Amino acid sequence: MTSMHAVRPADALARLFNPRSIAIVGASANPNSFGGRFMTNLAGFEGKIYLVNPRYEEIAGKPCAPSLSALPEVPDCVLVASGLKTVEAIFEEAIALRVGGIVLIASGFAETGDSETAAVQDRLAARAKESGVPLVGPNTIGFVNFATRAGATFLTGLDLERGYDCPPERRTIGLVSQSGALGLSLAQSMNREVYFSHVLSCGNSADIDLADCANYLVDDPNCQVIVCLLEGLSDPRRLEQVARRATLAGKPIILCKMARGDHGAQAAASHTGSLAGSHAAYKTMIERAGGIMIERFEELIETATFLSKVGKPSGNGAMVIATSGGAAILAADAAEAQHVPLPQPDGSVLETLGAHIPAFGSVRNPADVTAEVVNNIESLTACVEAVLARDDFAALVIPHPLAYDTAYPRIALLDRLAGEAGKVISMVWLSGWLEGPGSGEIEAARNLAMFRSMEGCFSAIRTWIDWDRRRAAIERDPPAPLTDARVRSRAADVLLKSDGAVIAEREAKALLATYGVPVTEDRRAADGEAVRHCAREMGGRLVMKIDSPDIAHKTEVGGIILGLETPDAAVAAYERMIDAVAKAAPDARIDGVILQHMVPEGVEIVIGARIDPAFGPLVLVGLGGVLVELMADSVTAPAPVTQPQALDMLRKLRGAKLLDGFRNMPPVDRETLAEIVVRVSEFAADHADQIVELDINPVICHGSNIIAADALIVLKRS
Predict the structure, then answer these.
(1) Helices 528-538 and 567-584: crossing angle, nearest 10°?
(2) What global pTM score does this model have?
(3) CA–CA distance from 266 to each of 269, 270, 507, 630, 691 (Å)?
(4) DSSP secondary structure, 445-505, as one string
């Protein structure tokens, strides 16, 4: 499988991202140059700034050294504002001095596709790893550490002073982005009262990548929530290590992944290969480590801000207090869409709402308190206090339909009431005047969370509740594998000795059976007389399947016939099948047919695995049968998985209710099915260097009677 390297320890990046001294190589008197922009953005830095450029003795009255070696001390962080041709020499000098880290902004390396410049990047990366001197970039915009006023970026248009000057307790979000432009665009949320502890950009990630940067933020006390904007990683499972560390530290880590397409599966031989996408694997991987996957870029900052303010959810639902019947309907629709319960008020809450809401309003959840309550501070206070006092509501949602000055006292009141109750009120800004009166006050309030859409609000609430559940359930120590070393060794030997590119059904099932996967008993027949003999000995209703290593999907070539009740019927079916398959797949090698007993009707599941170039082994579970690709209802995870993780995969299937009993079929034993998923995942992980993909379809589930009826293993062959 793909090797997983350790994430760079946070203390190894401390001098780089929390420097006491910064050297600008390529400093310039031209304020529009990269070196000049670095100087401007670092004007307020609390540490020492050193300028390096052999063409100047001083710049703007500050001394300028000809080289790093000429500086009075070894700098912690070196910003290289120099072209491609000179960077290797500068890098070697920095390594010789043992600087704390290097930020290389120059572009034109591997991202161009040019082999020569890609080779330069490879050499820089190799030297960084050999020396232990971390390299950020190339092709990066730099970073900002707001706690130390270290604006180590060349970008303009950022109101860095605004971030520096805000109270430290409001700088809680750490942002890591592979895309410099998008990362800094998110950082402009400072202009609407959302503040950051750090903004870190990885660029080409030749050495330090997004996982390393996020790992640094796990240990930084100024950062409370970590946001990652990701395109892709060469070794994505390192991010799982970081997500687990962050979750155990009580820090939500939120990932938004771009580039969701999965082109690598287009030529896959099995159902699994076409379904097991890497984007799905990212989502499962991050969530099983306790992290959060956000699908919409637009919801990143709102969700992060919300999570930076809230504590532990006290319940599983939300209460809505709306001043508009229409807003109440919007809230009800969004809550249902995001699966957030709206418990009906009772007891003290119902009594208080009934005492203050007029007859033309509604005391049901979502409650329409009408303008009469909103304009009566005492009534509004009583209603809000009653809801906040109850722990059966995880969240209180209050839509804010209109932007107007007279709302200021109400915003201040709600902030105070929420603070006194130790909770956060979610405010949904419905006005088309996006920056109207009151918007900044809500964003700035410690105990209010601002949302620009009802869907975004309830999505964040659902995310919060789910994150708390995952955090409580996270596995600190993975359990021992179910399969012992002797079985693994024997299976590896069988795979090694296989003489083709495909292990067909009978041998594939036998191999999986050694891992504890329950499979149907088969009899092989090479001709009509052998079919008659097997059918007579086996008795009962039989299934006949074509036996060929060259045919992956038997149904597509007429290679499966069901319900054969007599030896004569079996012989006739054999003759029809051989003729049909010969016409449909004339070049396929036919070894005969396989006979097996009919399995009782049940829910059909597919379990499989494929080897992803980045992730290594991925395991998949989904609704199976002949419509598996049409339904495309599957969940993918990096292998191996544990029993709880396999159960969670089953829960995430859109058709999961089928497992709870359908028509006259009993509920599927999920524990047993999950154990089979675990065993298949272990097989894939153990033999990732020998297989390309495997497919078990269908796995027929009837109560606790679960059995694999077909299987296919595709091998790596040079």
Answers:
(1) 140
(2) 0.89
(3) 9, 10, 26, 15, 17
(4) -TTEEEESSHHHHHHHHHHHHHHHHHHHH--SSPPPPSS-HHHHHHHHHHHHH--SSEE-H
Residues in the chain, how many? 718
Give yes or no for a contact between 22 and 45, defined as CB atoms under 8 angstroms apart: yes
Return d(Cα 207, Cα 678) in angstroms, integer. 34
d(CA 498, CA 482): 25
- Pick the closest to residue 397 from 443, 312, 463, 334 (CA basis): 334
Looking up tokens 């995870």, which residue turns up? 637
Residue 227 in contact with residue 176, Cβ under 8 Å? yes
C-beta of residue 276 within 8 angstroms of C-beta of residue 285: no
Of 69, 108, 101, the residue nearest 85 (C-alpha): 108
Please confirm whether the linkage preceding 640 is cis (ω < 30° from 0): yes
Q: How far apart are CA 640 and CA 84, in angstroms?
A: 42
The 3 state secondary structure assigned to 349-415 is HHHHHHHHCCCCCECCCCEECHHHHHCCHHHHHHHHHHHHCCCCEEEEEEEECCCCHHHHHHHHHHH
Q: What percent of the chain has pLDDT over 90?
A: 74
Query: C-alpha distances in angstroms, 596 versus 520, 575, 581?
Result: 7, 17, 19
Contact 512, 608 (CB under 8 A): no
> Which amino acid belongs to residue 438?
G
pLDDT digits (tens, 9 = 90+) for 127-179: 999 999 999 989 899 999 999 999 999 988 778 999 999 999 999 999 999 88
58 near 159, Cβ under 8 Å? no
What radius of gyration do the chain's Cα atoms show?
31
Alpha carbon distances (Å) from 341 to 114, 134, 337, 465: 54, 48, 10, 11
Tens of pLDDT, residues 288-313: 999 999 989 999 999 999 999 999 99
Q: How many CB atoms lie within 10 A of CB 117?
A: 18
Q: Which two tokens stand for residue 238?
A: 């390192």
Sheet holding 21-25, edge to edge: 58-59, 62-65, 48-52, 21-25, 77-80, 101-104, 135-136
> pLDDT category, 272, cuts 50, 70, 90?
very low
Q: How far apart are CA 617 and CA 633, in angstroms?
A: 20
List of long-range contacts for 486-492, beta carbons under 8 Å, 24+ apart = 487/514, 487/515, 488/686, 488/687, 490/514, 491/515, 491/683, 491/686, 491/687, 492/686, 492/687, 492/690
pLDDT in tens, 334-369: 999 999 999 999 999 999 999 999 989 999 999 999
Max intra-chain CA distance, the chain: 102
State how beta strands 62-65 and 77-80 pair.
unpaired
Query: What would the two tokens of residue 18 be?
Result: 């929390």
Distance from C-alpha of 286 to C-alpha of 241, rounded to nearest angstrom: 9
Q: Which residues does residue 503 pair with via DSSP β-bridges, in sequence order? A: 713
User: How open is the CA angle 552-554-555, to the nearest 5 degrees?
Assistant: 135
Q: Please, which residues have CB within 8 angstroms of residue 479's CB and are 6 or more apart in sequence?
A: 642, 643
Give the closest residue to 508 by CA, choosing from 276, 267, 691: 691
Report the chain's terminal Cα–Cα distance, integer Å: 16
* Cis peptide bond upstream of 31, omega within 30: no
Residue 374 structure tokens: 């909103």
pLDDT above 50: residue 6: yes
Answer left, alpha or beta for residue 250, where phi above 0 means left and psi between -120 and 50 means alpha.
left
Distance between CA atoms of residues 712 and 269, nearest Å:
10
Residue 557 — φ and ψ, nearest 5°? -120, 15
